[in-house]
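wait is this the right file?? whatever heres the structure
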């Protein structure tokens, strides 16, 4: 049995609105598990249900085999880190972290040892006596992390801990969180709506939409093999291909078919060729005209108008010679493995031919 199991969780608010409609997840010991989805999809609701701040309308939650719904919140031994730093401004860094241990009647000497360890883990050891007001957002969030860890929790829950920080600090701190989590080896559920953050730090990602699970998988599975159109669009970007005779010809050449499907392809799976590039076995060259060339440093985005739709092509490490002018004739190169097929409900279809 998995370490944490949530089975068929349903949460209704006010008797009519359903925030979670039958969610099931499992989290293993030491696993970094991320809930990823747009605002309002139920991420916080699920986290709060596990912490015990709200109770499910129905469903089961077990931790290490025990029924968690029978355990009052303060006895669940779950550490939480929130979006706002929630530090006490009048307490030193040390006392902020020690705060969680006070109601647990931990002897003073042990408090000292454990707080010192937790502060070392988040690299705040040297700042133990400071007041939080004199500290950066990233440092304040590390206080929150140390306070959650110091109780030696069975589970660590983090609800968008980095969303109040600027982009550069977010990237730095997410690497730190990942390292600390692996070092302390506590099963962690992390909430974010930032797809790159989720890909960077997770062992597995659970993509949610409107109170339901779209897909659970490793970052590679979620990004590389999305099972629904929602996942493919939310984690990455997608070109929709126009359903017409030109597309039928392209799919025919690639020996791809999926009856009744709509087709899409990721921009980075497309290539850009010269106007006279020919098709070969496994690669089709679709002629088109450049609409726009956007240089972004590490990559360039080329919008090409073709008979199967306006396709954005992502080029990586574009040199000066890669630059294209509007109205230039080019072709878009599509490999057999690039197009993805979805049914009318958005479910991925096998694209065999
Ligand atoms: N106490 C409540 N009473 C009524 N509705 C609620 C309550 N808490 C949450 N909701 C609703 O449940 C839905 C899910 O909310 P939740 O906070 O779980 O979303 P979220 O995925 O965490 O979104 P965000 O990314 O914005 O934090 C939302 O439509 C929200 O308005
Ligand atoms: Mg939330």
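ok assuming it is, sequence goes like this
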């Amino acid at each position: 049995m998995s370490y944490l199991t949530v089975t068929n969780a349903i949460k209704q608010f006010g008797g009519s609105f359903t925030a979670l409609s039958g969610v099931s997840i499992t989290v293993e010991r030491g696993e970094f598990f991320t809930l990823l989805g747009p605002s309002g999809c139920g991420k916080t609701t699920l986290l709060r249900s596990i912490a015990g701040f709200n109770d499910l309308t129905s469903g089961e939650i077990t931790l290490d085999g025990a029924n968690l719904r029978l355990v009052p919140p303060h006895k669940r031994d779950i550490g939480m880190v929130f979006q706002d730093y929630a530090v006490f401004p009048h307490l030193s860094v040390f006392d902020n972290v020690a705060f969680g241990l006070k109601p647990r009647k931990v002897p003073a000497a042990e408090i000292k040892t454990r707080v010192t360890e937790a502060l070392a883990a988040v690299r705040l050891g040297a700042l133990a006596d400071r007041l939080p007001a004199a500290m950066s957002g990233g440092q304040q969030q590390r206080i929150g992390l140390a306070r959650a860890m110091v109780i030696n929790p069975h589970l660590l829950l983090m609800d968008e801990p980095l969303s109040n920080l600027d982009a550069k600090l977010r990237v730095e701190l997410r690497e730190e969180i990942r390292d600390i989590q692996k070092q302390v080896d506590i099963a962690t559920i992390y909430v974010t709506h930032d797809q790159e953050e989720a890909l960077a730090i997770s062992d597995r990602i659970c993509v949610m939409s409107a109170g339901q699970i779209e897909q659970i998988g490793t970052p590679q599975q979620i990004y590389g093999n999305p099972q629904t159109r929602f996942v493919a669009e939310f984690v990455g970007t997608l070109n929709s291909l126009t359903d017409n005779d030109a597309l039928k010809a392209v799919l025919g050449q690639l020996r791809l078919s999926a009856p009744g499907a709509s087709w899409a392809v990721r921009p980075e799976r497309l290539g850009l060729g010269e106007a006279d590039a020919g098709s070969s076995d496994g690669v089709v060259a679709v002629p088109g005209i450049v609409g726009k060339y956007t240089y972004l440093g590490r990559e360039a985005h080329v919008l090409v108008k073709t008979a199967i739709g306006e396709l954005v092509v992502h080029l990586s490490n574009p040199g000066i010679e890669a630059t294209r002018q509007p109205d230039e004739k080019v072709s878009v190169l599509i490999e057999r493995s690039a197009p993805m097929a979805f049914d009318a409900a958005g479910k991925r279809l096998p694209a065999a031919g």
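The longest strand covers residues 283-295. so i think its the right one actually
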